[in-house]
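Task card 7
Instruction: Convert sequence to structure tokens.
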Amino acid sequence: MTTETGTLFLHPDRNLAMELVRATEAAAIRAVPFIGRGDKNAADKAAVDAMRKFLGTVNFDGVVVIGEGEKDKAPMLYNGEHVGNGRGPACDIAVDPIDGTSLTAAGRQNAISMIAVSDRGSMLDASMVFYMDKIVTSHEGIGVVDIRKPIGENIRALAKAKNKPIDEIVVAVLDRPRHAQLIDEIRAAGAGTRLMLDGDVAGGINAARYETRIDMCVGVGGSPEGVATACAIKALGGLIQGRFLPGSDDGRQKGLDAGLDFDRVYEANDLVTSDNTYFVATGVTDGGLVAGVRRKGPIIRTESIVLRGRSGTTRRVIADHLAAKWLGELDVAGLSG
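Output:
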């Protein structure tokens, strides 16, 4: 489509994905010196600074729908911030320079740097309500699993749909006191658990992928993470359902004022209305989704996953970066190739 002033870019195109990978790679690499050092805030700041600097070079007009928080609490990558050079497609973006800052600080597995993108105006702003009760499965769960049903019933239904014995079903859930009863019910149904210390985005994606041991991801986690996960689920053809949970009367009112419905079960198309989605993640530490950053002599190696909703494509990107280019300040010009 063209106008008198030239080409009018309306939607993210396939080339955008590789530009976004550079931003998550930069964030992951910059977080490495802080792995296992006990300072999650320092790790997060390093990743945020690197991601934002790279995003500024990307040919798109992105608005952060899900970021580090409100502007006064997050000076960069805050909700509502415009990123990119403004000359490309108009997009909504969800960013988490490190999903799993505590994991990074402790030197534990499954920390990732991630960006999700969709057409402008298509990503639900879930920032007013922090918590969401979620369930994620592969495509076998569609029309079979329902978040309103007891977990045991969902486990039995999914096992039947996947033609697996119940005792081979593995359910991922955040290891939190609030999930103690849920964990007991999962085990009472005959399934096994995979307890996650943090990072339920990776857990949800793994539940939707066909080659992992995780069959289902359930429990209460972050609402923003639910929206980001929905972008990935669109590419994987899986199921995600979520219900917003207000933490207080004030939180409920803020959610209602923002147009959120606490009686509604939100599915992928409710969380992200466009099918033109991207989800990009680079491993910070090793995990089931992607390997972490590794130094190999003069090389820094990263592994990333790129999921595109429109084509239903999953790609893995293994990149070797010359370590000398990362000495001193972040050198965008030297690393953009």
